[in-house]
Specification:
Helices cover 39% and strands 24% of the residues. With 443 residues, it is α/β, with parallel strands linked by helices. It has a seven-stranded mixed beta sheet. Helix 1 runs parallel beside helix 11, helix 3 packs parallel to helix 11 (315-330) and helix 13 crosses helix 16. It binds flavin-adenine dinucleotide.
Length: 443
């Protein structure tokens, strides 16, 4: 069975667009990618700015499928646990999974460059940089390309994928079609990046193999390790309100705030005040829409179809999984219309589920990881996992360490949470009671 097309056009050579191109090129299609930014590989310094992402099992599976896992593994740092920095200055490590299970810190720019390098090794992939796409005409199968010098070309396409992120030009065109469902919602928190530089000769000033969290109820700081010994920290904080970005106007106010809540981190951040005022405050959006495709010619993929908040570290992983599932469905469908229909039907419930899981995980990370009731439930959960290592897997584990559909992870996670609430209310809980009651959530 083969889907007919001479050329396939992709908008965006970000993480998902680049990986999608590789999947399509392996199937023999001629692929053209239009990217609005310049080629970040020609300016490695900017590309390598230490902004990092957590890569987990779904991402690895999708990379492995096209044979590029190894290149990325070489530059990924395993994070085996959350390292919680408590308000009293103490640290507590909470392993993410069983022995050896980890999520991996990778540089966003480095990963994107590697994916583009891998893509350009295929003679049938061309990436066109500095080409901003606007005004997609779905009926005419045509879009406008705005070049660096402002010149505008119109290009025809046969099959178009929009991998152009949360503010997609293809999605903007779909929004003007009849019965297109669309919502975007911002959370009241924004984020700002700060840096803990490397110590002497590139040493790590904190535990290297952990994702560090400073949960402070309504807001939090996190830090992920980089290859060069530094950590990229992200402060998630309200835009407005009594304690908020909008209330911090001077270096003295920033100094007071950071020292009050994160003194151990500040001690390792000599440039935090400059970073605080120099780095932008960015917003966090969840985008839900449907359908993702138009007839037999255009389809959204990655953030353009389902941008989510970053608290489960799954946006990119979900986009990579989109590519793997699309590729799998390509073997089962003979025409593009059917393929796009099957793809969106299969992915939409999972995209919705990870959007919900990601919003819930913000509350868990910023508030609950230091909450005694939550910790009690975690302890019971660990005991169930010890008693039934092959039959129990936590919701976090399903999302991060397996390819179980997100919608199943959400549903099973809710069942588990209900049981953990029941169990945590039992006074003298022992293994017999635990075993008897856990049966319903084992596989
Ligand atoms: C603070 C933060 C932390 C995150 N952490 C994680 C994490 O730990 N793990 C994880 O899995 N995910 C994480 N994510 C989510 C992840 O960044 C996204 O899900 C991922 O980047 C989506 O990839 P994409 O290729 O779909 O979109 P993008 O990465 O946004 O790429 C879109 C590409 O399209 C190009 N483009 C856009 N518009 C046009 C246009 N009109 N014409 C031409 N080109 C265009 C852009 O320049 C870009 O190259 C995080 C997100 C944020 C904001």
């Amino acid at each position: 069975m083969s889907l007919q097309a001479e050329r396939i056009t992709i908008l965006g050579s970000g993480l998902v667009g680049s990986l999608l191109a590789i999947y399509l090129a392996k199937r023999g299609y001629q692929v053209d990618i239009y990217e609005r930014r310049p080629d970040m590989r020609k300016n490695r310094v900017a590309a390598g700015r230490s902004i990092n992402l957590a890569l987990s099992e779904r991402g690895w599976t999708a990379l492995e499928q096209v044979g590029i896992r190894k290149q990325i593994e070489d530059v990924a740092i395993p994070m085996y646990a959350r390292m919680v920095h408590n308000t009293d200055g103490s640290l507590s490590g909470q392993p993410y999974g069983k022995d050896g299970q980890a999520i991996y810190s990778v540089s966003r720019g480095g990963l994107n460059c590697t994916l583009m390098d891998c893509a350009e090794r295929f003679p049938n992939i061309s990436i066109h940089f500095n080409q901003r796409i606007e005004d997609v005409n779905l009926k005419e199968k045509q879009f406008a390309v705005i070049k660096e010098d402002g010149q505008v070309d119109r290009i025809n396409y046969e099959i178009l994928f929009g991998a152009d992120g949360a503010f997609s030009a293809l999605r903007a065109a779909l929004q003007r079609t009849d019965r297109f469902e669309y919502s975007q919602s911002y959370i009241e928190h924004g984020y700002k990046e700060l840096t803990i530089p490397a110590g002497d000769s590139g040493s790590f000033l904190m535990e290297k193999n952990a994702l560090h969290i400073w949960p402070r109820k309504n807001f939090m700081l996190i830090a992920l390790p980089n290859q060069d010994g530094s950590f990229t920290c992200t402060l998630f904080f309200q835009f407005d309100g009594e304690e908020s970005f909008s209330r911090i106007k001077t270096k003295a106010e920033a100094h007071d705030f950071l020292n009050r809540y994160f003194p151990d981190a500040v001690a390792m951040m000599p440039h935090c005040l400059d970073d605080f005022f120099h780095n932008p405050t960015s917003s966090l959006v969840t985008v839900r829409c449907y359908p993702w495709s138009y007839e037999d010619s255009a389809c959204l993929i990655g953030d353009s179809a389902h941008a989510i908040v970053p608290f489960f570290g799954q946006g990119m992983n979900c986009g990579f999984e989109d590519c793997r599932i699309l590729d799998q469905l390509m073997t089962e469908h003979a025409n593009w219309h059917e393929l796009f229909g099957a793809f969106q039907l299969s992915r939409k419930p999972n995209a919705d589920a990870i959007a919900t899981l990601a919003l819930n995980n913000f509350i868990e990370m910023r508030d609950l990881v230091a909450d005694p009731h939550f910790l009690k439930k975690k302890k019971i959960e660990s005991r169930i996992a010890q008693l039934y290592p092959d039959q129990f897997i936590s919701a976090y584990g399903m999302v991060s360490f397996t390819n179980i559909p997100y919608a199943d992870a959400l549903r099973r996670g809710r069942e588990q949470n209900n049981l953990l609430e029941e169990l945590s209310a039992i006074p003298n809980l022992d293994d017999d009671i635990l075993s008897a009651m856990s049966k319903k959530i084992l596989k």
